[in-house]
Amino acid sequence: MRMATAARAELSLQDTLLPGGAPIARDVALGLLRRELGRFQAQVQRSFESQEIHGLGAARQLSQHMDGILHAIQDYAAAMVPPAPGAKLIDFALVATGGYGRGVLAPHSDIDLLFLTEREAGPRTRRMIEFMLYLLWDLGLKVGHATRGVKECITEGLKDATILTALVDARLLSGEETLFDAFLEAFTALRAQGLAPFLAAKRSERALRHSRYGQSPFLVEPHVKEGRGGLRDLQTLYWLARYAFGVRRMHDLIGPDSPGGGLLTEGEVRGIARAWDFLWTLRFHLHYVTGRAEERLTFDLQPVIAARMGYTRHGAQDGAERLMKHLFLTAREVVRLSRVLEPAIERAALGPPATRKGGDDGIAALGLAFADGKLVAAPPDRDFSREPVLMLRIVKAARDRNLEIHPLAIRALIRHSRQADRLRGDPEASKLFIDLLTGKDGAKWLRLLNETGFLGRFIPEWARIVGLMQFDTYHVFTVDEHTIEAIDVLQQIDRGELNEIAPVATELMGQLQSRRALYVAALLHDVAKGRGGDHSELGARLAQEICPRLGMSAEETETVSWLILHHLLVSQTAFKRDIEDPKTILDIADQVQSPERLRLLLVLTVADMRAVGPRVWNAWKATLLREVYWRVSEVLAGGMTVPERDVRVARAKEAAAAMLPAFTKAEAEMFLGLGYPGYWLSFDSETHARHASIIREAEADKAPLTVRTRVLADRAVTEVTVYCSDHPGLFSRISGALAVAGASIVDARIHTLTNGMALDTFWVQDNEGGAFDAPHRLARLSVLIEQALSGRLKITAEIQNVRREPARLAAVTVPPRVVVDNFASNTHTVVEVNGRDRPGLLHDVTAAISEQGLQIASAHITTYGVRAVDVFYVKDVFGLKVENERKLAPLRAALLEALTPPPLPGGALAPYREAAGPD
């Protein structure tokens, strides 16, 4: 293709010549070029940021201006490296390839150039090319370049699909037109040999790219260029169409007279255009904000770019969430367009498949047939628009018979997904859908129905969570993708694949009588997110409308609704309440009431948590969930009625005494007299015996401080036991030392003994959610605790040196919140604090509690991404609950102050700008 008429750079050959015709000095020419480059780059940026042009228009303008710069550079190079008498002034073709060849450039994109020669480049041509490249590099441009002859281009292209793809977009900038014509002729001959090798190469390249940048188009920090549903996927469609048919616009594929006989509809071409422009606009903002070729839309950039693009809060969604929903819907549209266009190109280029109806009476009876051994709707009488239930029949047949659905049938699924409206409440459709949901590989088929758009039409409430992002670092996926992941985890449990990770849930799965209700509850548990209010309560009400449409009985509907209402009950109890407190267990038992519901809740909780992200589930959390289940299960079974406190304490002391055969009677009595009732009810007999040994040894040695560590590999935690003299602020100092050591506290129990000593137990993990088990780190941890308690460790200063979170997370805000509950426990005031997690947060919060004159009995620490939710069971100095508002008001104020993080110097993007460096 010849160079299009462009908004030429104002610099021309005349500007590079002295009055006598000699070229100006190189440094002078470089200055002129630099000013011209800066002028048009600034002009495009101003036009873009004032919204005079969108991303695609800006990309084209940058490309056109760059054409002019390169033309001027080639002219200047020809003058600076004069030819021999009678020789051509320029004997090669300057060709743009890659994205630049398509006539689009991002602000910090590479410029891909091909210096096309007739034969091997001579000395003067090599000098000219070298001269041009050094000028481009001195201008600060990133240049990809190659010098090849026509035959060499074809040869190298056949060896390397990346080179071949770049040549698809080749565009003449200046120089030898006849040489470029020869290249076009050779390349056209190559394309005529068939699409198959190129198609296979692009599919392989795409698979590798998706495996690197994410198989899902719904990752919350997506790669706009290389991720699934991103620009590269759209470009792949263009490359295939260009290679197969020689077209340069998708619009050329509309209509019966177009190549392939009309592969796209007007609506699909408009969808491609919208996706192109939106993704290019997003990419321009990424480049301008970061000052580099940044293609990943990270958390810190999302609110900035949302504001630049005009996304503001609307209802329950803030601007960043609205931007991301638009992006995810665009990515889904790109995925759908790929499923529509790619098989159509393949069929048109490689020839239509042979379709047959016969061979399987069962398939024919369903209204289906085979094409190339894959399932399609039986032509010519059966199609999805007239008989939409075929869309579910074909998916079920593919699952049951282990067959593939033909790409053309998937294309029809996408094009006719709106017809799913007609299936709502249809008995056959509901039966088929529930069968797909609860049967083999249900998550796989749900994902297909979601990506094609069927699911959002069949269940309209689902459409509102498609592409819905929660702006936090806890959730890895959008709400719809997380839900499908939860279904996948349920099926892994069902198949016994998670027996080692979740043995109790695996065992319970086989005992369930309400399996259908469990799967539907998993499908709908987050369906009310994004509506404002409590999504559990709203979801429970929506389930009462949705379940009857899906053919669920009244009993099943009630079970699904109840499960959605309480789907967070088990996890919140395990991670935020003292499960040694009898009232905690009795409260959850009163809500559950049924062993079957308890089983359902546990399995649903495991599926929900494991579907959030790879780092959310760990052995410690699994242990806590199992403890809650077994304790509540005992109450529901009537095997334990939670006897009176004194009786339980007496039994605990008897069990502990039986574990102390090496103790003298006096030693044993001394230990048994140390603990208050809360201590004896907090640990098992083995732990009591271990504590007895620690205390006996410390008293014998008159040690002022004893620190013991124990790695619990099966729980993925390390237990740290500290025995020392009790004093106000002890918990705060120890937690500060643990933060300096790099340990994260996941649970803690604090006990003051009758001898005035403190016996505090902390369960800690490393930054990866595993046990804190390296010997040198454990030794350092003990030393830091001793230094903190002796006052030699400057905790506040040392915490500042602890590794900070990545800058990309700085924009995720967590409003501080304090909740005081005097009903959750009969003996303690429960204080819950919510805030942004940071090194030393627990130190600051517990210091504030101690300064208010309160004693901490136990602490339960949970983090959700960057959000910390810490719960403390506290009493006043007299051992009583804190119920007086005059004491609670200053406590809340002190905790809110402790939760408020220090401001980030230079604003949210300061670390990012520093990393970006100069342009």
TrEMBL record:
Protein EC: 2.7.7.59, 3.1.4.-
Cofactors required: Mg(2+)
Single GO term (MF): [protein-PII] uridylyltransferase activity
One Pfam family this sequence matches: HD
Reaction(s) this enzyme catalyzes, per UniProt: [protein-PII]-L-tyrosine + UTP = [protein-PII]-uridylyl-L-tyrosine + diphosphate; [protein-PII]-uridylyl-L-tyrosine + H2O = [protein-PII]-L-tyrosine + UMP + H(+)
Keywords linked to the UniProt accession: Hydrolase, Magnesium, Multifunctional enzyme, Nucleotidyltransferase, Repeat, Transferase
ACT domain span: 719-800, 830-906
Region: Uridylyltransferase, residue numbers: 1-358
Domain HD, residue spans: 479-595
Record text on activity regulation: Uridylyltransferase (UTase) activity is inhibited by glutamine, while glutamine activates uridylyl-removing (UR) activity.
Similarity remark: Belongs to the GlnD family.
Job of this protein: Modifies, by uridylylation and deuridylylation, the PII regulatory proteins (GlnB and homologs), in response to the nitrogen status of the cell that GlnD senses through the glutamine level. Under low glutamine levels, catalyzes the conversion of the PII proteins and UTP to PII-UMP and PPi, while under higher glutamine levels, GlnD hydrolyzes PII-UMP to PII and UMP (deuridylylation). Thus, controls uridylylation state and activity of the PII proteins, and plays an important role in the regulation of nitrogen metabolism.
Domain notes: Has four distinct domains: an N-terminal nucleotidyltransferase (NT) domain responsible for UTase activity, a central HD domain that encodes UR activity, and two C-terminal ACT domains that seem to have a role in glutamine sensing.
HAMAP family referenced in this protein's UniProt entry, alphabetically: PII_uridylyl_transf
NCBIfam families: PRK05092.1 (NF003467), UTase_glnD (TIGR01693)
Protein's recorded name: Bifunctional uridylyltransferase/uridylyl-removing enzyme
Gene: glnD
